[in-house]
Amino acid sequence: MVTLKIDGKKVTVRKLSTVLDAARKLDIPIPTLCHHPELSPFGGCRLCLIEIKGYPKPVASCTTFAKEGMEIITASPSLEKLRRTTLELILSDHPKDCMVCERAGDCKLQELAYFYGIRENRFEGERRIYTKKDNNPFVAREMEKCILCGQCVRICDEIQGVGAIDFAYRGLKTKICPPFEKDLDCEFCGQCVSVCPTGALTGKMWAHKGRQNFKEVETVCPYCGCGCNLTLHVWRNEVIRVSSKEDTINEGWLCAKGRFGYGFIHSPDRLAKPLIRTAPKEGVDLNKPQNSSRFTIHDSQFKEVSWDEALDYIAVKLKETKEKYGSDAVGGLSSARCTNEENYLFQKFIRAVIGTNNVDHCARY
Amino acid sequence: MTNSIPEIENHDVIFVIGSNTTETHPIIGLRMKKAVKRGADLIVADPRRIDLVRSSSLWLQQTPGTDVALLNSIMHVIVKEDFIDKKFIEERTEGFESFKDSLDEFTPEAGERITGVPKEKIVKAAFLYGDAVRPGIYYTMGITQHTHGTENVYAIANLALMTGNLGRESTGVNPLRGQNNVQGATDMGCIPDFYPGYQRVDVPGIKQKFEKAWGVKLSDKPGLKAPEMIRAAIEGKLRALYIMGENPILSDPDVRHTINALKNLDFLVVQDIFLTETAELADVILPSACYAEKNGTFTNTSRTVQRIRKAVEPPGDAKADSYSISELGKRFGYEMNYNLMEDIFQEAKKLWPALVGVTYKRISKAGLQWPCPTLDHPGTPYLFKGGFPRGRATFTSVRYRASEELPDNDYPFLLSTGRQLFQYHTGSMTRRVDAINMVSPGAYIEIHPDDADKLNVRDGDIVKVTSRRGSLDIEVMVSERPLKGLVFIPFHYREAAANLLTNTALDPVAKIPELKVCAVKIEQSNK
User: Fold this and answer.
1) Residue B444 has pLDDT above 60, yes or no
2) Which of A319, A363, A365 is opposite residue B186, by nearest beta carbon?
């Protein structure tokens, strides 16, 4: 453990902690754009500069180890001036399109520009122009907005273990891209999107669905058994975005299905009325496209009925079967995609009401 | 899982057998990669060069269906090299001596002969696992979907027991659940031989407890397991079936067999969010609310009970599944009225002490892992600390038994089916997400380049794949992933439904079908 003093306050942290870690422990705000607690330190954005007593010039707190007895200043007029200038430089070739940017309101760069009151920029100059290669359906890449913080590169390599993107070229031409500047072709986990501090990387399906006034609902992913926690962004009865928070069992990481696979909720194919069969059963034609079933079979083989009609009919038929063939001639298959409560009720219904233990679910598949 | 997900990071050895973790459980896969980064050795046993192989220190490419021989030969070496935990065996297990003798024949040489894994690798796996301090074993359906799935699981249990690798933090045996609430559905008693909380229906006393709680007489005859229901429907013994949120036509083996079974029923109710392939054969279809449209709890693969919350209204007249069940109960004169979703949970808790400490309030932020027997209990991150519920754990000797249907001259290829990253289960949800369909538009068959040469087929060609049950036309993906002679088809796609081909042979105990091994032939298609 080492003890140091930050802005006059003493703090003790584990060895190999950075000065930034120590400051965060004291809840002292230091602006950062390239730092992520789960990723290796980068020291790229130069916003976390701090002064250390006895050091000739300011250093980046995210790449400086805390040492015993250090005395640190995190805010001073000269530091603030440095940060402001750095921000102006970052913003000097940044498109000024916050009005239409998907990330507005949730953008770290915008927030810092707001805090530092940067409207005019002393460093207007050359702009980076990119040819768009963006045919993938998940990640929208507006690389003009990229500030080269490298979080996406590090997350893809260090957390996801994929390494689909990296830095290419140098100087003003530096860019982040897949090999040979091809279109993104990866696992589409969207981890990069979740850490991007600007509008450079956003979810394609978020576009024009709304940036504010949405409700956040905490829930659990409907797919595999990992049980990742999801935050559903809801606007006017529609799920418009899915994210996940860092303090969850999945540490905020999701896969392509969890992050981008929510479109089925509002699919036009959703069943919306109870249906009763009107025509004899045909086979199942597996060659028809999946999403056509509602519109074709629906009309030719089923009619819409009220809940009461459907439930009365089911009750009559189940009673009939039970009386004629006994309880064990009835079975129930429950679902691993239904809740605990529904599964409890389902087996109770089959056992207590129908009177059989013929109840199972899809654990074998 | 006997362990919990965060514990994965601290394993020093991870043994993944029959689990394509990064595709089927991506976020658990991330934790495994993190452990490797922190110095853990990863052993992967899989007939396909799955993505995890890249992160592994050792890859055992066994022939599908030979896991018992592989595990037994690893254990043979563990005994021979004295990696066993004598104290653990002495204090917490029974039957070790006779079990040990059963391993005699499984020398690494014998292992190599049966599994195709070089004996040096078998020895290395034994050294890595045997010498580990905090090892974890991970498996999924690559282990269970066999006619000897139960034996595979026994073999894994034996390996963990003989090395004393259970009941400690970051040390254990971890089957991963494929769907978000398989754990919960099983916990809640949607299995034919157990009431909620794994209480047997045919053990005297338990039935009476549930009869008292539910106020009715109950049957003490264990019911039919899902694949047995399908068979019983064909035989005319099962006449009516109520399916809530399942799609057996695409998920069960031998699609034609399943269709015949469901058509043979007098009455079929399907309750779902989409008109699935199974719903096409229903007499009544009830529209359900999906996960985002209801309140309740899911239990993940690590026994963590977590809250789900209603975010949007269901479409049209669709209603939560609880509505139709309660309403049907009423029509039978049995009241199942609950004011709140939590009231149902409360009732389940009364019948299963392991959940007593879990309340909606306590899990409003983060879930709790059962067993959680009291309101101040912090939950149980790992199981079997200090002992097993049954007292001593028993070693079960298992012998290698070949799979039911192996390749022969007529059907020379071995087919395994399974999942891939982008699609989910029978595709009823993911195949309705446009973006997912763009990156994962259709079915394919993975074929080894040497086999592709022999068949004279190239990437993108359409081939006809035929088994003794059926045939389908499907696009070729030439890939170094599968073992030579092995082909793989994901089962998500209705237009090339892998289960048209698969075998209905079942494990005699668990009644799980052998979806990982059947024999097929491959021909050029005229389509």
Assistant:
1) yes
2) A363
Around Cβ B316, how many Cβ atoms within 10 Å? 13
Does the ipTM surpass 0.85? yes
Sign of the torsion formed by the C-alpha atoms of B226, B228, B232 and B237: negative
- What is the pLDDT, as a whole number, of residue B353? 94
pLDDT at A2: 94
Query: Is B180 in Cβ contact with A222 (below 8 Å)?
Result: yes
pLDDT of A312 reads: 97
B350 — contact with chain A (CB < 8 Å)?
A: no
The answer as to CATH 3.40.50.740 being correct for domain B182-369 is yes
- Tokens 């659990």 found at: A220
Work out how many domains chain A is built from and give that number.
3
d(CA B66, CA B53): 19
Compute the average pLDDT of residues A148-170: 96
Residue of B nearest to A325 (CA): B239
Distance (Å, whole) CA B146 – CA B70: 15
Structure tokens at A73: 């200043």
Angle at which helices B67-80 and B108-115 cross, to 10°: 170
Let me know if B313 is exposed, middle or buried by CB neighbors in 10 A (0-12, 13-18, 19+): exposed
Q: How far apart are CA A173 and CA B422, in angstroms?
A: 34
The verdict on B433 touching A (C-beta cutoff 8 Å) is: yes
How far apart CA B276 and CA A332 sit, in angstroms, is: 17
- Per-residue pLDDT tens digits for B54-113: 999 999 999 999 999 999 999 999 999 999 999 999 999 999 999 999 999 999 999 999
Q: What is the pLDDT of residues B377-403, one digit of tens each?
A: 999 999 999 899 989 999 999 999 999
Rg (CA), chain B: 24
CA–CA separation, B445 and B479 (whole Å):
9
> pLDDT per residue over A224-279, tens digit each?
999 999 999 999 999 999 999 999 999 999 999 999 999 999 999 999 999 999 99
Judging contacts by C-beta atoms under 8 Å, the chain B residues touching residue A232 are 292, 311
User: Which two tokens mark B110?
Assistant: 């014998």
Query: In whole angstroms, what is the distance from residue B326 CA to residue A353 CA?
Result: 11
The set of residues, in sequence order, having a beta carbon less than 8 Å from that of A175 and lying 6+ positions away, is A128, A130, A143, A146, A167, A168, A169, A181
Distance CA B102, CA B152 (A): 15
Of B280, B301, B421, the CB nearest to A297: B280
Write the CATH number of the domain with boundaries B413-524: 2.40.40.20
Q: What is the CATH number that goes with domain B5-176? A: 3.40.228.10
Q: Six-digit token pair at A47?
A: 């916003």
Q: Where a domain ends, among A43, A75, A107?
A: A75
Shortest Cα distance from A120 to chain B (angstroms)? 40
Q: Band the pLDDT of A291: cuts 50, 70, 90.
A: low
Q: How far is residue A190's CA from residue A253's CA, in Å, rounded to a whole number?
A: 9
Query: Lowest-pLDDT range, A157-161, A290-294, B373-377?
Result: A290-294
The predicted pLDDT at position A296 comes to 55
Task: Provide the domain limits for residue A226.
Answer: 213-266
When scoring A342, A347, A350, A353 by the number of chain B Cβ atoms within 10 A, the one with the most, hence best to mutate, is: A342
